[in-house]
Amino acid sequence: MRSVQKSLCALLVLTAPLAFLYLHVWSPKPYSTVDLRHRPDQTPDQLLKDYLLLPNKKYAHIAFRVKEEILELLPKNSCKCVVEPSMNLPFQRQLFGQVYSLDFATAFSPSELPDINNKREQEYHNYRQRSHSPADQLLIVRANSPLEYPSQGVEVRPLQTILIPGLSLQAAGRALYQINLSATMGTFDVAAEVEGVKVEGEGEMHLTLSGPHLDSINRQMQFVTYTNTLFHPNTADTVQFSTDGHQATFIIRIRHAPTPRLYNPGSSRGGASGEEYNISALVTIATKTFLRYDKLRTMINSVRKFYPTVNIIIADDSQNPEHVEGPYIEQYFMPFGKGWFAGRNLAISQVTTKYVLWVDDDFIFSPRTKVEKLVDVLEKTSLDLVGGAVREITGYATTYRQQISVQPGNEDGDCLRIRQGYHHTIEGFPSCVVTDGVVNFFLARTDKVLQVGFDPRLSRVGHLEFFIDGLGVLHVGSCSNVVVDHASKIKLPWLKTDSEKQYAKFRYPNSSDNSVIVRHSLFYFKNRFKCMTGN
What we know:
Layout: H1 2-26, H2 50-53, H3 68-71, H4 92-96, E1 100-103, H5 113-131, E2 147-148, E3 155-156, E4 161-163, E5 168-169, E6 177-182, E7 186-190, E8 198-200, E9 206-211, H6 214-221, E10 224-228, E11 234-243, E12 246-255, H7 279-282, E13 283-289, H8 293-306, E14 311-316, E15 329-333, H9 340-349, E16 355-358, E17 363-364, H10 371-380, E18 385-391, E19 397-398, E20 402-410, E21 413-420, E22 424-426, E23 429-435, E24 442-445, H11 446-452, H12 464-469, E25 476-486, H13 498-507, H14 515-525, E26 529-534
Parallel strand pairs: 3-12, 13-14, 13-16, 14-15, 18-25, 21-26
Antiparallel strand pairs: 1-26, 2-5, 4-10, 6-9, 6-11, 7-10, 8-9, 11-12, 16-24, 17-25, 18-19, 18-24, 20-21, 22-23, 23-25
């Protein structure tokens, strides 16, 4: 009996620590609760005083002269889409395009417009709250401050700790020195303690350092740490830094470092200059086809003359799909008439190379279609996308370079402005320029195109909408020395096949089709544009 009791006691002694360890490891941990609801729009008083934005009364007696030509360049609280009168020149439309103005509110009936406007403003308000970061806050550095601090570049990973660099106090002699630090999304502490310095608020959002010796205070500030306590994957904390009679503000950015998306460039082809690229490893050709299998096969055959092993991805929403077979070809079928931008999304979503070359299904590669030149531009510049030129059967080649800008408006929306042209030429690439929109033949970084995406609601009409959605995201260029041919569109009406007639019906909608209305309604609601001017 005693041996049994001893065995039970031994078993309890062994299992009790294991049970305790199990409960410690697997029991639910208490998690803090955070408020992720949108906060009301407000400008903190301590960050931006009204008198910093208004003219100082101290200088009210000093006369000045307004320069109207410069005043016109400054942003305004409203904008208008007005076509300015111009001289009537011969062939003006052919040379410079037809200047036009569009009001996007007309895409809706007067009865539904008030409800649309209310919903649009609510969505815009929510968008601004989601996208706004304290890092966007205007900060004004006051004059003659004895405080030294980092103006930018301080960054911490979410819920991690850093030393705050650059804190210092350069003050005149006094009996007691004191500095204060305050934050809203994290806490302060010190990594080491300096003799003679009193530290208050360790592990809290407010830290105070005080002491009689300035050098000791500055030495202590070299050990001040910041720990983020409120998780957010990408935001910023606004830190208040003050001493007697002086206050400063700086930003600590809180974010996960962006995860790189790297692509294997493959082995070099070993050109004599050492600058040739393995196009098959770097580039995938993507296209969208609809009913034009004859032209599609012609395009593929032309590609194979110059790039026999480059992968070609086809998005197909034809009514009676045909299988296009061959090596290095991927064909994906979609519901009938699903649309132009939906097909772009599908095709590019399957790209696994660093770059994607977008082509129409009726393009024809020639000796002038040097994809290597476009790759070279993207490899050696900060551009995300570079267009080429499309040569028509007449011999005319177009790059379709467009300057796209948005003028801030009022509560009615902003104004979209589109003009032919470009911004700068690119050093080292004399045939290339910087612009905002290009022709439908371009090489782009795959990850950047996926980031912008193509609105699938644009099913039959759409091109520049992609570049408009990409404003502020895509750095766009255009090179006129890389040319692809465009199959002839000239064909007598009685010689057209049924598929060609059906294609024309979808490709070129008549005035009663709602494609244009859909396009304008998206501009009005999704992009919050009230109007557009262009040529």
